Amino acid sequence: MFDIPSLDIPSLSSAGGRVRLPGSKSISNRVLLLAALSDGPTLVEDLLDSDDTRVMLAALRQLGCAIEEAGPASVRVQGLGGRLPVREAALFLGNAGTAMRPLTAALALMAASQGARFELSGVPRMHERPIGDLVDALRQLGCPVQCLQTEGYPPLRLGDGAPHPLHLNEPIRVRGDVSSQFLTALLLALPLVAQEHDVVIEVVTELISKPYIEITLNLLQRFGVRVRREGWQRFTIARGSRYASPGRIAVEADASSASYFIALGAIAPATPGTDGIVIEGVGLDSIQGDIRFVEAARLMGAEVVDEGNALRVRRDTWPLKAIDLDCNHIPDAAMTLAVMALYANGTTTLRNIASWRVKETDRIAAMAIEGRKLGATIEEGADYLRVTPPTAWKKANIHTYDDHRVAMCFSLAAFNPARLPVRIEDPKCVGKTFPDYFETLFSVCHTPAERIPVVCIDGPTASGKGTLAAELASRLGYHLLDSGALYRLVGLAAEREGLSTTEADLREPAHAERLGRLAAGLDVRFTPGKTWLEGEDVTEALRTESAGMAASRVSAVPQVRTALVDLQLQMRRLPGLVADGRDMGTVIFPGAPLKIYLTASAGQRAQRRHKQLISKGIPAILADLLADLEARDARDMNRAHAPLKPAEDAVLLDNSELDIEQSVQFVLKRWHGQQAFPVR
Ligand code: DC
């Protein structure tokens, strides 16, 4: 998750490989509820991990349903079989509409039939989201339902602790023009009480969002409940219906999220050695409405092949074909077409998209404004968008309006032929449906190394490089290379193998070769905040003064330096790298666009190190530290191979009088000035 003000995506050149997308939110929460209402256990796989599903899991557990983790993204739900072990509870449901609506229906029915009492509440925004149509339907059935603050809105009290007879002989009437979730809630819950009667639901208005009702009916069928549907007006749940667990059920990957990777496969040339993009967890037989995005992508020229619960996408027609399409059936995924249109051979028109105006933001306006920043010509109508690709692409910072889809869409502009990077503001907004979107994107995108930015931070020991580099990496969302750690690792590994690291021994050619081989074969792994040598956590051992001294000695051995070059070059990965060391700017990344050389005096550095050690309760003598520092400086600067010195084009930064934040700001200012993204 990139929790930073903005993320710069370098110009990208190709894509290929497999992605696994998060599970569909709509399916996840429906399945959890159905599994909880069924008899016996259900293994739910590929569950979405998001705010909404966490709320549902917590509520079900509070109701007495046993749910255990069963591997990554899997849970085992012990169904309650429609019986309530807990008869009184207050459930907090956050802002999860997909938990509030179905739980209201299920708990109101169970509270009335079994004698129980529940209170359901959420965040303030949840208390502004209407639920009156569902409350009306439940009251018709004879369920006691009380709106505790405002009539028609949560918080709600369901039941009063006593059993109440239910009126199941008459059709239950519900409106379907505010939210289809009210009908979904009734459909999911009424099989609980359809033992002796057929239960009929009548929709008394037009029904919106029909594809979501299809998901509900489909999942009910997977749990053994058949619903007879007459048009979109009348739904009958047969007498004697019972939820029957399918035993195991996998949640499909989210089809709307898939649209970005389908578009990616259509836009990006396949990386050599790959055969396009494979999206796992969703196939053409998906029960989600947005799967029909595939038809639109094919019209524009994508090759999409169903590989059985997976889609393979390859670029086919190029440039893409401009289209003129009614997008009413795929309102969310159609935004992705607006970005594909930037790569088309003419003007694309997306019609019948008025609903875009009332989503997370006014999406018609947002796509038009941001697309124009890239150089496209965009005409915006009340319910349409007409996109003509840029003739000259422009460097743009994309504002994202707290709308996950705007952010995900415009990331695909990084394939522009002008090879310009794209800046995405507030990238963490993707967390609404796809927290790891950018990580997933970068895992299958490729670009020549020279397009991946590197910020080099070189300087003498104890100059504060490490802290500065780590801070910059986290502010820019870049990877971090602590090259000193590699030399420290070699020193440590040598010690563990019983190999001497004295200067005299290291001058022996055969010994130097052995150390080189040791460095080339290092079994090292980096995880956030930890370093592992041969499977052992050596983070602390690496930070000791003696490891630093050993590192300084082994780093003078040319064979060791050469052996570590590839490892360092491989760290240059999307979206960028901050590299800290002695020769980052001079030897490893000589073409880096920004090189900083820290120049605090030895006296200052010794004092800092002294303070640091004392604060940790480690005894230290200032004069000894100064002598050690000077010895290391001398060795690092005077060695024949890759000596410590500023690169010719390095920016010198004397941070003696600066605190960390001031140094960070100094570098960020240079960096952003150099990137020259237009200001809004
Ligand atoms: O930055 P540090 O103190 O962790 O580095 C330990 C030693 O490794 C340092 O004394 C010199 C050496 N080193 C190097 O030669 N080249 C680098 N790029 C990084 C560190």
From TrEMBL:
<keyword id="KW-0028">Amino-acid biosynthesis</keyword>
<dbReference type="InterPro" id="IPR001986">
    <property type="entry name" value="Enolpyruvate_Tfrase_dom"/>
</dbReference>
<feature type="binding site">
    <location>
        <position position="181"/>
    </location>
    <ligand>
        <name>3-phosphoshikimate</name>
    </ligand>
</feature>
<feature type="binding site">
    <location>
        <position position="97"/>
    </location>
    <ligand>
        <name>phosphoenolpyruvate</name>
    </ligand>
</feature>
<feature type="domain" description="Enolpyruvate transferase">
    <location>
        <begin position="17"/>
        <end position="441"/>
    </location>
</feature>
<feature type="binding site">
    <location>
        <position position="179"/>
    </location>
    <ligand>
        <name>3-phosphoshikimate</name>
    </ligand>
</feature>
<feature type="binding site">
    <location>
        <position position="432"/>
    </location>
    <ligand>
        <name>phosphoenolpyruvate</name>
    </ligand>
</feature>
<dbReference type="GO" id="GO:0036430">
    <property type="term" value="F:CMP kinase activity"/>
</dbReference>
<feature type="binding site">
    <location>
        <position position="359"/>
    </location>
    <ligand>
        <name>3-phosphoshikimate</name>
    </ligand>
</feature>
<dbReference type="InterPro" id="IPR036968">
    <property type="entry name" value="Enolpyruvate_Tfrase_sf"/>
</dbReference>
<comment type="pathway">
    <text>Metabolic intermediate biosynthesis; chorismate biosynthesis; chorismate from D-erythrose 4-phosphate and phosphoenolpyruvate: step 6/7.</text>
</comment>
<feature type="domain" description="Cytidylate kinase">
    <location>
        <begin position="455"/>
        <end position="670"/>
    </location>
</feature>
<feature type="binding site">
    <location>
        <position position="181"/>
    </location>
    <ligand>
        <name>phosphoenolpyruvate</name>
    </ligand>
</feature>
<dbReference type="InterPro" id="IPR013792">
    <property type="entry name" value="RNA3'P_cycl/enolpyr_Trfase_a/b"/>
</dbReference>
<keyword id="KW-0963">Cytoplasm</keyword>
<feature type="binding site">
    <location>
        <position position="26"/>
    </location>
    <ligand>
        <name>3-phosphoshikimate</name>
    </ligand>
</feature>
<dbReference type="InterPro" id="IPR023193">
    <property type="entry name" value="EPSP_synthase_CS"/>
</dbReference>
<keyword id="KW-0547">Nucleotide-binding</keyword>
<comment type="similarity">
    <text>Belongs to the cytidylate kinase family. Type 1 subfamily.</text>
</comment>
<dbReference type="GO" id="GO:0009423">
    <property type="term" value="P:chorismate biosynthetic process"/>
</dbReference>
<comment type="similarity">
    <text>Belongs to the EPSP synthase family.</text>
</comment>
<protein>
    <recommendedName>
        <fullName>Multifunctional fusion protein</fullName>
        <ecNumber>2.5.1.19</ecNumber>
        <ecNumber>2.7.4.25</ecNumber>
    </recommendedName>
</protein>
<feature type="binding site">
    <location>
        <position position="25"/>
    </location>
    <ligand>
        <name>3-phosphoshikimate</name>
    </ligand>
</feature>
<feature type="binding site">
    <location>
        <position position="363"/>
    </location>
    <ligand>
        <name>phosphoenolpyruvate</name>
    </ligand>
</feature>
<feature type="binding site">
    <location>
        <position position="129"/>
    </location>
    <ligand>
        <name>phosphoenolpyruvate</name>
    </ligand>
</feature>
<feature type="binding site">
    <location>
        <position position="332"/>
    </location>
    <ligand>
        <name>3-phosphoshikimate</name>
    </ligand>
</feature>
<dbReference type="InterPro" id="IPR003136">
    <property type="entry name" value="Cytidylate_kin"/>
</dbReference>
<dbReference type="GO" id="GO:0005737">
    <property type="term" value="C:cytoplasm"/>
</dbReference>
<keyword id="KW-0418">Kinase</keyword>
<dbReference type="GO" id="GO:0036431">
    <property type="term" value="F:dCMP kinase activity"/>
</dbReference>
<feature type="binding site">
    <location>
        <begin position="459"/>
        <end position="467"/>
    </location>
    <ligand>
        <name>ATP</name>
    </ligand>
</feature>
<comment type="function">
    <text>Catalyzes the transfer of the enolpyruvyl moiety of phosphoenolpyruvate (PEP) to the 5-hydroxyl of shikimate-3-phosphate (S3P) to produce enolpyruvyl shikimate-3-phosphate and inorganic phosphate.</text>
</comment>
<dbReference type="GO" id="GO:0003866">
    <property type="term" value="F:3-phosphoshikimate 1-carboxyvinyltransferase activity"/>
</dbReference>
<dbReference type="GO" id="GO:0009073">
    <property type="term" value="P:aromatic amino acid family biosynthetic process"/>
</dbReference>
<dbReference type="GO" id="GO:0006220">
    <property type="term" value="P:pyrimidine nucleotide metabolic process"/>
</dbReference>
<dbReference type="InterPro" id="IPR011994">
    <property type="entry name" value="Cytidylate_kinase_dom"/>
</dbReference>
<dbReference type="Pfam" id="PF00275">
    <property type="entry name" value="EPSP_synthase"/>
</dbReference>
<feature type="binding site">
    <location>
        <position position="30"/>
    </location>
    <ligand>
        <name>3-phosphoshikimate</name>
    </ligand>
</feature>
<feature type="active site" description="Proton acceptor">
    <location>
        <position position="332"/>
    </location>
</feature>
<feature type="binding site">
    <location>
        <position position="405"/>
    </location>
    <ligand>
        <name>phosphoenolpyruvate</name>
    </ligand>
</feature>
<dbReference type="Pfam" id="PF02224">
    <property type="entry name" value="Cytidylate_kin"/>
</dbReference>
<feature type="binding site">
    <location>
        <position position="25"/>
    </location>
    <ligand>
        <name>phosphoenolpyruvate</name>
    </ligand>
</feature>
